[in-house]
Amino acid sequence: MTCKVDRVRDKYDLYNLDARLEHRYRSTDEGVRQLEDWINCQILERAMEKAGMTVLDGEERNYYRLLTNDEVLDSARREARGELRDASVDVDEVESNFVSYQTVRKHLNECLDIDTSRDYNPDPGADLQQIKKMRQRVTNVIEGSLARLSREDVAHIEDPSVTVSFKIRCGNCRRRHDIIEFLSGNATCTCQSEA
Q1: Rounded CA gap, 135 and 107, in Å?
Q2: Is the whole model's pTM more than 0.70, yes or no?
């Protein structure tokens, strides 16, 4: 069974992806997180081109930022999704084909035999950004589902606002924490400081 990176490479005709990945990893300062964003921009660019769009330099990176960056206003994100949909880009499908940090790391390690252990430095801020991206993807999927159901007159709700939160529970004291607040703070459960 092929890995997800191989599948999206074939689906979007990302020629020489493995060679370009290896070159970027070995010859630049780019780590796995930067490669994740790079691959996803490649996917988005190819989807835009296949839909007949003329992609200006950096345009795919800007759309990717608008779709995935947690700090982008919801109105700007909706506008970007609308522009892509109007150009016949299946935004939901493209987002479902975006690869994650873990997927890229696994591909480098297992498919390309590249040791990425040097790439990991504990960085709660980077992990926090990854979780925020995932939260935004889930939000986008829910918003897309509601929009489709509304168009088909199945769901009836006026201008819905989607909020997604991830909770973790401490195995010691059973307290629940919002993961984003947890990692934005000192990443320590209250019971640990009470002990």
Answers
A1: 23
A2: no
